[in-house]
Specification:
Helix 1 packs across helix 6. The strands form 4 sheets. Strands 3-2-1-4-5-7-11 form a 7-stranded parallel sheet, sandwiched between helices. Strands 6-13 form a two-stranded parallel sheet. The chain has a two-stranded parallel sheet with strand order 8-10. The two termini are 33 Å apart. The chain has 307 residues and is of the alpha/beta class. Strand 4, helix 3 and strand 5 form a beta-alpha-beta unit. It is globular and about 60 Å long.
Length: 307
Amino acid sequence: MKIAITGATGFVGSRLVSKLQEQGHQVTIFTRNSNYARKVFPSSSFPNVEIVTYTPDILGDWQNGISGCDGVVNLAGESIAEGRWTEEKKQSIRDSRVLTTKNIVAAIASAEKKPSVLINASAIGYYGTSETASFTETSPSGNDFLAEVCQSWEGEAQKVSETGTRLVLLRLGIVLDMGGGALAKMITPFKMFAGGPIGRGNQWFSWIHRDDVVNLIIQALTDSNVSGVYNATAPNPVRMNELSQAMGQVLNRPSWLPVPSFAIEALLGDGAIVVLEGQQVLPQRTLESGFNYQYSNLRSALVNICK
């Protein structure tokens, strides 16, 4: 296949490109920083990767690169875990998702040879937060900032159905692996014998191993029966206290020193909601699709990651 990917240099995208390269597929990367992309994907190691420079929130010639691709994977989006949520930051979080998706769909609509599938990232923030409720793909949306962003993000993606292109919306949980994501920030204090739960510890932590995300994307690319919304989370979410205990056991470090809520709020402002509140998200449709998780429980995932 020939696959177009946005967000390819990110935590999930970089692993996806490597896996597609191993399987012999051609990959076209759309990136704002082509020099950085060439460092991440040197031609000597990634001969089947083409790099296209684009400005994601502006229409341009880059959209011509969508024509002739078999599938598009849209993973673009400003990090929600870096820096305080100023009004400018919140606008960037929104625009980087909504406008990019809008322009990707426009490119598909105008393509002479249209891709058969668009796989568009979303997030479990769609559901809002709760310590008591559980959410599946059919649950209603929340009403906080992240939920509203996800609704607008998915709304733009859904317009691709007018072109006849199959749409898969993946609501990503917290992706775990070495080298980035939430775990990279959490693991350092454990290694310094200062690890523990963040905040009260009762909040839900709906996670997924990075390899399972990549395999789920590839299944969505290759299986024409996969369509609509899927929760990209492991089937066994845990509470923050359980996560901290498991990390302490796997790393052979204490896990009793909590990180107080006010410290996270001082660092992240409104963005603290990502780690101080959570949601129990279950991948009902993902399991029904026959997807086979490599890491369905947290301990096996941490053992693999921390080995």
